[in-house]
Design goal:
The chain is built from 16 helices and 21 strands. The chain folds into 2 domains: 244 residues, 2-Layer Sandwich (Nucleotidyltransferase, domain 5), CATH 3.30.420; 211 residues, Nucleotidyltransferase, domain 5. Strands 15-16-14-13-19-20-21 form a 7-stranded mixed sheet. A 6-stranded mixed sheet has the order 3-2-1-5-12-11, sandwiched between helices. Strands 4-7 form a two-stranded antiparallel sheet. The termini are far apart. It is globular and about 70 Å long. α1 packs across α6, α10 crosses α15 and α13 crosses α14. Bound molecules: adenosine-5'-diphosphate. The site of adenosine-5'-diphosphate (ADP) has 16 residues, from α11 and α12.
Length: 497
C-alpha cells in the first residue's frame, strides 16, 4: 500500500488536515480531508485575535480524524505543516499554555510602533535586512506587544520561560509535547527579525523591536527532520518533516520552483508570489522580498505582492449591491456584455495593497453612463482582478525579476473562466489552473515527503491536465483598457486624498 503523508493547513478562517497517498512515481493524491472553522475575535476596531488553544485543539482533532479515516497512523510516513503567516503566538515554555490570544496578521494595533520606527528612519535598514517594509502586518511588533501584555513577560522571555512563535512554531511545539521549539525559514522571513540572506535571527532587529532572541524558535529549512509528534498525539510518533508558510507552500504545491515561475491565489484577497531565483532581489517597486523555499539542496527567493480585494469584490456585488445571488452568476453577466462600456471599478474597500500601499484609499467606480447597468458593475469587478494583477506584474518587471513564464492560479475565483481569460489577456501571459485546487496542503505534503526522503525532487508529479488560458487580446485594445484602469486608480486616490 502506498505510504500516506499527513498535511495540516492552519489557515486564517479554518484548520484543515488532508491525507495524501504517495504513489511510487512521486504523485500525491488526496484520500481524506477534515476541516474546522476558526472563531475570529475582534476585541477592538482594527484588532483581530485567534484563540491559540482553539487552533491547537482544531489541529489535533482534524489530524486525528483524518488519520483514522485513512486507516490509522501506521499507514503514515510523515507529516507537513503549513499555516497563516505572521500571526503571533505566546505561550509558557514549561506548561505549553497560551499566555494570550494570538494576534492575527490583519491586526493593526501596533501601527503606532511601526510608524514611529519608520519616522525615526529605520525602514531602509529593516527592509535591507529582511526584505519587508515597516508595517504592523509582520510579527515582530506583535511579539513585542504580547510581551508587554504578559506580566513580567520580557524578563521571563529573556530567561527562556516564555516562548514566542508564528503558528507553525506553536503547532510543532504542541505536537511534539513541548520538545521542539522550531520554525521554518519561510515563516521566520515574515517576522521582520530574520536576515533574508543568512536566514538567521538578527540581534540588532531583536533589539530594535525589543523582542528577546531567547524566546524565539530555532530556524530550520522547510524540509528535513523538524520534530516528532509526541506518542500520545496519534498513539505512535510521526516525524514532522515539512513546514512552510501558506503562500510559500502553495508555490511549492504549484511546482513553481524555477526563476520566472509565479503563482497567484485568488481568494478573498489575492497573493502573488514570484520565484526570482537563488539570490534575493530587493524591491524598489514596493513589493516584498521574501523566501520562496529552502531545503538542503536548493533554495529560492521570491517577490511577493498582495491585492486586498479580489473575491471580496464579488462578495460585495452579491451581499452589498445584491446584483447577483451567487458568485458564479458573475461569469455569465460579464460574458453577456460586448465590452465594459467604459466602466471601471477600483475595489479599494480596505485600501489598496501592493504596489500602491494606500491603506486609506477607498473604492471608486468611474465611467458610468445612462447605459450602465448591473452587468457593468459585475464586469468591472471581475476586470479589476486582472488589472490589479497586471499592476503587480509590472512592479515585478520594474524590480528586474526574471520574465514570467506562466502564471499559476488557484483559489475560489479561478472557477470563473471568463475572469481567467481576461487575466491572461490583460497580463499577456498564459494562465494555468491545476486540476486539484488545494495547493497549500499539497505543497506542505510534498515538502514533508521530500524531507522524509520519500521523493528526491520537489517537482510536481501529478499528471491531471491543468486548465489553460492563453492571451488572445489585441495589444492596442489591452493598452486602451489599461489606460482606463489607470485613470480610475488616479480617481480613487484623488477622491480619498
Ligand atoms: P478564501 O480562501 O480567501 O476564503 P476562496 O479561495 O475560498 O477564498 O475563494 C472564495 C472567493 O471566491 C469568494 O470571495 C467568492 O466570491 C469568490 N468566487 C467563488 N466562485 C466564483 C466565481 N465563479 N466567480 C467569481 N468569484 C468567485
Amino acid at each position: 500500500m502506498d505510504p500516506l503523508i499527513l498535511s495540516l493547513d492552519q489557515g486564517t478562517t479554518s484548520t484543515r488536515a488532508v491525507a495524501f497517498a504517495l504513489s511510487p512515481d512521486g504523485a500525491l493524491t488526496p484520500v481524506a480531508t477534515r476541516q474546522l472553522e476558526l472563531t475570529q475575535h475582534y476585541p477592538e476596531p482594527g484588532w483581530v485575535e485567534h484563540d491559540s488553544a482553539e487552533i491547537r485543539d482544531a489541529a489535533l482533532q482534524t489530524c486525528r480524524e483524518v488519520v483514522d479515516a485513512a486507516g490509522g497512523v501506521t499507514r503514515f510516513a510523515a507529516m507537513g505543516i503549513t499555516n497563516q503567516r505572521e500571526t503571533a503566538v505566546i505561550w509558557d515554555a514549561a506548561t505549553g499554555a497560551p499566555l494570550h490570544r494570538a494576534i492575527v496578521w490583519q491586526d493593526r494595533r501596533t501601527a503606532e510602533t511601526t510608524r514611529s520606527l519608520a519616522a525615526d528612519g529605520h525602514e531602509p535598514a529593516v527592509q535591507g535586512a529582511t526584505g519587508l517594509i515597516l508595517d504592523p502586518y509582520f510579527s515582530a511588533s506583535k511579539f513585542a506587544w504580547l510581551l508587554d501584555a504578559v506580566p513580567d513577560g520580557r524578563a521571563r522571555a529573556a530567561r527562556g520561560e516564555v516562548r514566542l512563535g508564528t503558528v507553525d512554531a506553536w503547532l510543532i511545539d504542541r505536537l511534539s509535547g513541548g520538545r521542539s521549539h522550531v520554525t521554518d525559514a519561510t515563516n521566520a522571513a515574515r517576522t521582520s527579525l530574520m536576515d533574508l540572506r543568512t536566514l538567521a535571527w538578527r540581534e540588532d532587529l531583536a533589539g530594535l523591536f525589543d523582542v528577546p532572541l531567547a524566546a524565539l524558535p530555532e530556524i530550520r529549512p522547510c524540509a528535513g527532520p523538524l520534530a516528532e509528534t509526541a506518542r500520545e498525539i496519534f498513539g505512535r510518533p510521526l516525524p514532522i518533516t515539512g513546514a512552510a508558510g501558506d503562500q510559500q507552500a502553495a508555490l511549492v504545491g504549484h511546482g513553481a520552483l524555477a526563476p520566472g515561475d509565479a503563482k497567484i491565489t485568488y481568494g478573498t484577497g489575492a497573493f502573488l508570489v514570484a520565484n526570482v531565483g537563488t539570490t534575493p532581489v530587493a524591491s524598489g517597486a514596493r513589493l516584498l522580498a521574501t523566501l520562496g523555499y529552502v531545503v538542503d539542496s536548493a533554495r529560492a527567493w521570491a517577490l511577493e505582492g498582495s491585492i486586498f480585494s479580489a473575491g471580496s469584490a464579488i462578495q460585495w456585488l452579491r451581499d452589498g449591491l445584491g446584483v447577483i445571488n451567487e458568485s458564479r452568476q458573475s461569469e455569465a453577466l460579464a460574458r453577456g456584455l460586448q465590452d465594459n462600456g467604459g466602466v471601471y471599478l477600483v475595489p479599494g474597500f480596505t485600501g489598496l495593497g501592493a504596489p500602491w500601499w494606500a491603506p486609506d484609499a477607498r473604492g471608486a467606480v468611474i465611467g458610468l453612463t445612462r447605459d450602465s447597468g448591473p452587468a457593468h458593475f459585475v464586469r468591472a469587478a471581475l476586470e479589476s482582478l486582472a488589472y490589479q494583477t497586471r499592476d503587480l506584474l509590472d512592479a515585478l518587471a520594474r524590480d528586474g525579476a526574471p520574465p514570467l513564464r506562466v502564471l499559476k492560479v488557484d483559489g475560489g475565483v479561478t472557477a470563473n473562466a471568463w475572469a481567467m481569460q481576461f487575466v491572461a489577456d490583460i497580463c499577456g501571459v498564459t494562465v494555468e489552473r491545476p486540476a486539484y485546487q488545494e495547493m497549500t496542503a499539497l505543497g506542505a505534503a510534498r515538502l514533508a515527503a521530500f524531507g522524509a526522503g520519500l521523493i528526491d525532487t520537489l517537482a510536481a508529479r501529478e499528471t491531471a491536465a491543468p486548465a489553460c488560458w492563453r492571451p488572445q487580446m489585441d495589444p492596442a485594445e489591452r493598452e486602451r483598457l489599461l489606460g482606463g484602469w489607470r485613470a480610475a486608480v488616479r480617481a480613487a486616490m484623488i477622491a480619498t486624498a
